[in-house]
Amino acid sequence: MDTAVQMTESESLQASKVELQKVLKLLSSFDPIGSPYIGVQFANGKAEFFRSSANGFAHSKNFMVAEIYVDLHHFADYLKCVPEEIELSVAPNGVLRLYAANGNFPITLFVHTVQKGQAGTIAHTTTGRALELKPDIFAGIDVRHISNLSGYPTISNGTVMIPTNTGAVTWSGAAAALPPECNISPKFSFLKLISGGAAVEDLYVSQNGYWRAVVDGLVVYMKGQSPDLRLFNHINLPGNETCQFTAEALLDGLSGASSLIGDMDYLNMDPRCGVSGQDKFGNPIQWSLDEGLSWQKFRINGAQAKLIVNTLKQAEDERIMLSDVPTDTAPLLRFSRGNFAVTVSL
User: Fold this and answer.
1) Calpha distance 167→271 (Å, rounded)
2) Are 19 and 40 in contact (CB under 8 A)?
3) What is the fold of 237-345?
4) Domain 13-118 coded CATH 3.10.150.10
5) pLDDT tens profile 190-204
6) What percent of the chain is modeled with pLDDT above 70?
C-alpha cells in the first residue's frame, strides 16, 4: 500500500454513511472498555480505522498508520445527522470534517479530534499462528442475547460455557471441530463478534495467546484467557433426567409469561398448571404443558425464563429435557435441547 499523505483542506474523499456506521459499530463492540478514540488514515481514496484497548486491538484491513485520532462516539452520533453520501476531510486545524450536500442546505460538522498522546493507544505485540480454526466454527451459536456476565467464557473438551448472573449457557456444537489443544478461551466480546451470522474470513490463536479474526473486513486481535475449569466442571456436573417437554409448548409458555412479568418476578412450573404466575396487575397467567409428566414443582424468575428461551430456541429438536443436577451447594436445574443447555440455580 502507498504511504498515506496527510489531507489538506482542499482534499476530500467520498464515503457511505452506512458503511462508516458498520465499521464504527464493529470497533465499538470489539471491546467495551477500549479507547474512546480511534485512529483514522486516508489512503487510496478510502478511510481506514484503528482502535486499541488493554485487551487487544482492531483495524481495517488496509490500515497502516493513523493520521488523526477522533472521538468514536462523537463520530457515530454525527453520522446519524447526515445524508447517505458524505465527504470526509481534515480541516486546516487538523480536525476531521464531515460535509454533506443536503440539497440547497449543505451540512458541515467537525468531529472531536485529539493528539496522539491523548488517544490512549495501547501497543500490543502478537506472534505467529499456533492454532488454526475454521472461520465458521462458532456459527451455530448466537450469544447476542447474553448479558450480565458473572465470569468469562470457558472452552473445555469442545464445549463452550458462558456464565451469567441468571444462569450458565453451554453449547457443544463445535465439539467435533475444536481441537483438543484449544486450551485458551476467548473473551466474550470476541466470541460475540465471531459467532452467529458473523462474516468471519479467518480465525486462529496466536503463539502468544491472542485470538485473531477477520470479521466483516475488520482485523481483530484479542487476548485469550485460561479456562475457569472449576466453574465449568460445576456447571457440567451429571444431571438426573426428570422429564421431557414438547419444546414449542415450553418455549411459548416461558416466552409469553416472562414478557408479562419483571425480570425478578417469579413463574411457577408444576405438572398440574404448567407455567403459571401473576402479571403486573395481579391477574393470573397460565400456559399448559404436556399432560402425564411428573416433576417436582419449582419456580424461576423472568430473567431466567428469557435466558432459557433465547438460548434453546436456537436448537431445532422437538423435545427439551429437564434435569435435576445435584451439587454440594445450591441445587441446579438444567434445560437441554440439542447442543444447547441452560443451567439455573433455584
Assistant:
1) 23
2) no
3) DNA Polymerase III; Chain A, domain 2 (3.10.150)
4) yes
5) 999 999 989 999 999
6) 97
